[in-house]
């Protein structure tokens, strides 16, 4: 099987050659919005296309918003439209993405686009986390207006990326929680975010793409809603969720990627066997229900030796598990 065929076998509950990280079967394109918003790794503050200040410190794995009361974009949610300038999607340079896409054999692998800054994330990027959480509770109508504008931008971009490179999978990012719980009360999330997310999901599927939602956090209170939305794959499932219970309550309708407790094995002084044991645990606990791709939710161990052991066990045990547990 090709990596793509093997991934689809797991997705369709057919016999794969091996189990493992779905991301290994996807080639992510350097799309122009993502690359244009990527700040230099110089430790200085740089605004993204929405005007949100970002900082990428030398040695850090990635950039992060650096929001203060002085530089926050939206200073008053009741007058949000005075502050928000929606980025233009005209004249984007799709050349690099098209070149990569043309070099992918789509029988071998999927073509994907990483689509960051979902509705919730973009809202707290613009408002600051504390203000956003309060505004969701105190100003729901204004938040709906703001998120509706963000939603329209995202749908327009989804349609443009379809025209330019037609990805197989959209890797949509929106962390809805922490390692302890969801950020918003589920009733608030369902009232404000869910209807708009439904429009985004519909646009993804209308364009013929698989909707893979990244959220490496607790999403357990929202998983039946994720099924309602038509999310095809949840990538980033951390072990702090009760994954077995989620598989039961979603009745297998939500394929999942993750389960290996990355922070638990990405530490100094851990033994090789402890790393391998954690990888095997994820296979043994979550694969029996099907439609599960064991992996570290954020993709890698940042320590080179730890990652080497993790990847070795993922490959070896993934093949062994497939052989010893045939799909009937």
Automatic annotation (TrEMBL):
Residues 47-284 form the Uroporphyrinogen decarboxylase (URO-D) domain. It holds the Pfam family URO-D. GO terms for biological process: methylation; porphyrin-containing compound biosynthetic process. It comes from Bilifractor porci. GO terms for molecular function: methyltransferase activity; uroporphyrinogen decarboxylase activity. This is Methyltransferase. Keywords: Methyltransferase, Transferase. PANTHER family: METHYLCOBAMIDE:COM METHYLTRANSFERASE MTBA.
